[in-house]
Structure formats: C-alpha cells, structure tokens
Amino acid sequence: MFLKNSRYASVPTAAVPSPRDQEGQVTVVKLRTLPEVAGTAFAVRGHDQLDAMSEARYRDATRYWHIADANSEIDAAELTATAGRAILVPES
Fold it and tell me: Mean pLDDT in each 10-residue stretch from start to end of the chain (92 residues)?
C-alpha cells in the first residue's frame, strides 16, 4: 500500500466500511500513539505554513511532519489555521 521507505510502510491498517459505497470497504491506516517530544511553544501567525516553519527550524522543509506529529491535530493544515494558536515545535 505504501512505498517501502515511507514512514507509514510498517503502520498497521484496517478494513472499514466505505463511506460512499455501502457494499464496499476501504483500507485505512490505524492511528498511532506518538511519544511526547521536547520542543518550544510557538504562536502561529496568520501567514505561517508548516513547511516554512520546518525550513526555518531544521533547514529542511520536508521535515514539516515532525511539527505535525508533535501536535494532536488529525489534519496538519489545522495547526496553522488559527492565528495566535500555540503549537509545539520539536527541538530536532
């Protein structure tokens, strides 16, 4: 289902009823419990994006998922949707 080098390659999956087809099923990734990480609270500004925050913090925009995983939103885009919201930005 995922590429071998994907961070999701070894994550368990489950078959659930399809929300669109009452007869079918879809395969979904099971939510995983993430460990707590050390980091700095950061107040989101109206124009912030996770990839830009990752570039500034880690010098690597592709590491945005470290910020997403350190917070509890299911949809990472919600982390920067509200100006003034405090989110955790991991140290590394």
Answer: 82 85 82 85 94 95 92 87 94 82
Residues 6+ apart with CB under 8 A from 53: 42, 64, 67, 80, 89
Q: Cβ neighbours of residue 81 under 8 Å, at least 6 residues apart?
A: none
| Helix/strand/coil for 38 | coil
List 88's β-bridge partners, or say none: 41
CATH architecture of 35-90: Roll (3.10)
**What phi-psi label fits residue 52: left (phi over 0), alpha (psi between -120 and 50 degrees) or beta?**
alpha
- Collapse the DSSP code of 45 into the 3-class scheme (helix H, G, I; strand E, B; otherwise coil) and give the result: coil
0.70 surpassed by pTM: no
- Read off the DSSP letter of residue 21: -
- Domain spans of the chain? 1-32, 35-90
Tell me, what's the pLDDT at 32? 74
